Every structure is written in structure tokens, then in C-alpha cells.
Amino acid sequence: FFIAVFSIWAVVSQNKNFSFAVFRSFVQSANKCWLGAAFICMFGFIWFEGFALVRIARHFGYRTSAMDGTVYGGADVYFSAITPSASGGQPASAYFMIKDGIPGYATTVALLINLVMYTLALLAIGLFCIVFKFHMLSGFSVLSRVFIGIGIIVLIFLAFVFFMLLKKGGILYRICDALIKLLEKIHVVRHGEKLRNKLKSTMAEYQECSNEITGQWKFLMEIFLWNIMQRLSQLLVSFMIFMSVGEGFKQAVDVSVIQCFVAMGSNCVPIPGAMGVADYIMLDGFTQIVGNNAANMELMCRGVTFYGSVITSAVIILIGYFLRKTKQNSTIN
Question: pTM (2 decimals)?
């Protein structure tokens, strides 16, 4: 919360052309239909994330609904936003998936596959933007280009790591075994050998599950396309907002390209939600398009794409959590 407040303050205070009166008039005069479409796209970012996980779970034979998937997606978006390097997103999604009866090994495979496709989807869209809109990338400041470049390198590295964890279960086993040893050393775990035996059994199921799905390219392409839809939903938020304030189709397309560069560059630092860095890159990019109105437009777009999705996700996971608690209590009674 502190970082969010500081980031917004930095955008407002460092821009002499910003005024709350102008910002309020921007919001009030915005076309409500286009603005509504922006919020639908924002929700699509959450929904497509979860539905990709639902499709993988169903492929493994576990029954789960699109509504359940919305909770998985909301958990990922919310906890990714409030933890360094988005490290809390997958464990939060895993919590709800396991609560819904999907085994831990299948949940892990599903999340890793989705992570690979999620990363590749952004890289694919980013490559398209670089090829066809390179002049916009070159229009960023040197610092922004450095952030974007580092972000691309991090994305490629992460895609490779996630893929290796899928294909080589032994790597994941060694990581878990090292964690068990650490917990034994600090006396958190007493029966480490029992845990290792259980881990070996689980890893055998994990590898079998992974091998079964990684060879099915047609299905993997489907998951990739769902992740493309998720990424496009995020980029279209800024497009819809620019259309809502009458900036025109060309500028709305350009701002979607800038949003893509922001998404890639935001991976360069382990700050929750990349707050500060994402704001800087977005503000730098928007200056190319709207000049003095960059701060107003940045706050509108960032407000929906990031803060709007975080608040919506928080509401979704609270509802999902209490519904599951209610169901669990009624089953016990």
C-alpha cells in the first residue's frame, strides 16, 4: 500500500502539467461505453488466466468450473501484485486448486505449464510489437529501454526454467529435498525421511503427469492461445480508455503497444506489482503520444489495468474463500 501511494505521488508531483481538476474532467467526460469495455477487458485478464488452469485440470480428469477458474485467476493476480517478483501468485492459486480436489502434483504441473505459456504469450506479442512498432521502442528514454531489455532477458530465462522444471522432475525434487533439509536443520521438521519418501512418491506421479501433457502439442497450443487472450485483454484496457476520452484509433493502438513494453519491462525488478518502475515506463511511453496529458492518462490506465484488477481480484478470492468454507462446513455437518 505504501509503495502504491508513493508511486502515485511520484507521478503526480513530478509532472507540472498534472492537476486533479483536469484528471477529474478526463474521467467525467469519458465515454461510458468505452470505459465499461475497459473494465470488461480488465476482468478478462483475470478470467482467461483462471480458465487456462481449468482447461488443464479438466484435461487431467478433474472436474472444475469456469467460476472456480475465476478464483484461481484472481488469487494469482492479487498475490502476484503484493509479493516481490510475483512469487505469491502460484502458491495462492495452488491453495484453491488443491481445496477443489486437484492433487498437488497435478496442480504443480498445471501451474508450471500455464507459467510457460503465460511467459511465451507475452514474448510473442512483444516480438510482434518490436518488429512492427520499433520506432515506439526507440522513442523511450535510455533508462526505460534498459528496463525493457532486462525484462525481456528475465522472461526468456523464466520460460526456460519453468520448462526445465516440467521436463526434469529431478530438479524440482532436489529443490524440495534441500528445503526439507533446511527445515530439519532449524528444527521445524522432525521426520524428514518420512517427508522424503512421500516426496519421491509424489514426484513419480508428477513426472508421469508432466510427460503425459508435454507431448500433446495441440492441447498446449490451446493453452497458449488462452494466455494470448489474457495478455491481449490487459493491453486492450488502455486501448479502451484512450478511445473513451476521444484520443482516436491510431493513438489507442499505439498505447496498447506501449502497455506491452511496460508489461515486459516490469519484470526487471523484484518489487510488488513492479510499482514505480511500471509507472515510470508507462509515463515515459505515454509522453510520446499525448505529451502534457501523459500523467492524466497514465493514472487512468494504470488505475484500471493494475489497481482495478487487484481490487477486483481481492473481492473474488474473498467470495471464493468463504463459499468454500461454507461448503466445507455444510459437508461436515
Answer: 0.85
